[in-house]
Amino acid sequence: MSSAIGLEVIPQQEASTIEKDKGEKDKGEKDKGEKVKTQSKLHGPHIIKFNCKDALRRGNSGVRPQRVYRYSHEKNGTLSKHVSRVRHDTHPDNLGLILLEGNAFQSKATLKTEDDLNPRTYFAALSRECETKSNPIHFHDFFTRRKVPRCLVVTGIDTSKLVPATLVTMMSTTPVDHDPDQESPAHIATTTVKVRIPIWIDEDIRYRGNLADRKDCELDEILHSGGRFWLSVDELRTSDFRLWVSKKHQGEWLAISSIPESSVKRVMPFDGAFLHTTKTTEVIRSRCPEPYHWNFDTERWDHKADLSDYRPYRLEKIGDKRKTPPTRIREIAAIIIGYLQQVENQDSDAEAEAEADDSSSEDEAPISDF
């Protein structure tokens, strides 16, 4: 899964490899508490159930948050609309990495169910806003690392319309015994069982009926219709999936493949010390050696920003002398030229009418009394 509090995309590990701590001796060969790695894979058919008791109960349990928060920075592996750092390895402008139109976030990999739900298509978000406001120690940790992110962005994502469902599929698990004297691990017998995994569906076209009456469907049907789905780490820990995670991941939600722009409700910059939730009369600059300023219009960090027009960067304050942008100057000049042309045309018409009146009066003969 992703690193602590959803700040990075899933680590580059084997697809569908899960570590579990058994905490017991394995036939006297392993010490107590030693971690044993298992490799689990999901394989079809992947059936989505909406009307099962578990899904209906979760829909009324208050598990789903109204909003989750995603951290983004220039060292993320996930494409983000709100990250524009010049040297961003995964910037959408870079060749070979294209952020599709309409997406606010997008993973590098593409979700394909036939590839056993590759975890590299996941990326994480937090369900607690307090982590971003009252507990900024995590942010400071990032700024003390060797490879430190400089331009951090916190994005609020609407999850209020997620629909609870249960994924019923088959899972094959193979214990892997690592021996430091061997180049490759020795695989033990594989077991295959049916599992029920709690998921949440996000659909562009909402289902209008009662979920208790909604028929089962395959996962591909949801994906092909433009739907997406989310996973709750807290739910996965207690489900048949039995996901092993540390306490740092509690409250995380995993989005699959992409998040659309329509789901983004708030974008907030973190300058290295403070999380800025509103636009003020002060310019927000990242606390790093290079000059990066937060642009509220584009909702991105600008490198070497032109602050002569302060409006994208802060509110107006007393004493401001704003430099008019060149585009606005050209617009004003065009308006003035157009007005002068109208006046000139009106004067020309008036002169022509006056000359016509003079010529007609001269042609008329005077009336004599004799």
Would you give an account of this structure?
- With 370 residues, the protein is of the alpha+beta class.
- It has two domains: 249 residues, no CATH class; 59 residues, no CATH class.
- Helix content is 18%, strand content 27%.
- The protein has six helices and 17 strands.
- The strands form four sheets. Strands 1, 2, 6, 8, 9, 10, 11, 12 and 13 form a nine-stranded antiparallel beta sheet that branches. It has a three-stranded antiparallel beta sheet with strand order 3-7-15, with no helix packed on it. A three-stranded antiparallel beta sheet has the order 4-5-14, with no helix packed on it.
- The protein is elongated.
In a few lines, what is going on in this structure?
The protein has helices at 53-59, 130-133, 137-142, 219-224, 233-238, 326-363, and strands spanning 17-20, 36-49, 67-72, 79-80, 103-106, 122-126, 152-158, 163-177, 186-187, 191-202, 217-218, 228-232, 252-256, 258-260, 264-270, 292-295, 300-303.
Chain-wise SSE layout:
Elements: E1 17-20, E2 36-49, H1 53-59, E3 67-72, E4 79-80, E5 103-106, E6 122-126, H2 130-133, H3 137-142, E7 152-158, E8 163-177, E9 186-187, E10 191-202, E11 217-218, H4 219-224, E12 228-232, H5 233-238, E13 252-256, E14 258-260, E15 264-270, E16 292-295, E17 300-303, H6 326-363
Antiparallel strand pairs: 1-2, 2-8, 2-11, 3-7, 4-5, 5-14, 6-13, 7-15, 8-9, 8-10, 10-12, 12-13, 16-17
- Topology as a string of helices (H) and strands (E): EEHEEEEHHEEEEEHEHEEEEEH
Q: What is the tally of beta strands?
A: 17
Low-confidence runs: 1-32, 130-137
The overall pLDDT average reads: 73
Number of domains: 2
Largest sheet: 9 strands, antiparallel
Structural class: alpha+beta
- Helical content band: 10-25%
How far apart the termini lie comes to: 118 Å
**Radius of gyration, taken over Cα atoms and rounded to an integer in Å:** 32 Å
- What fraction of residues sit in β-strands? 25-35%
Could you say which overall geometry the principal axes of the C-alpha atoms support? elongated
Count the helices. How many?
6
Region (Disordered): 1-40, 346-370
Biased composition (Basic and acidic residues): 17-37
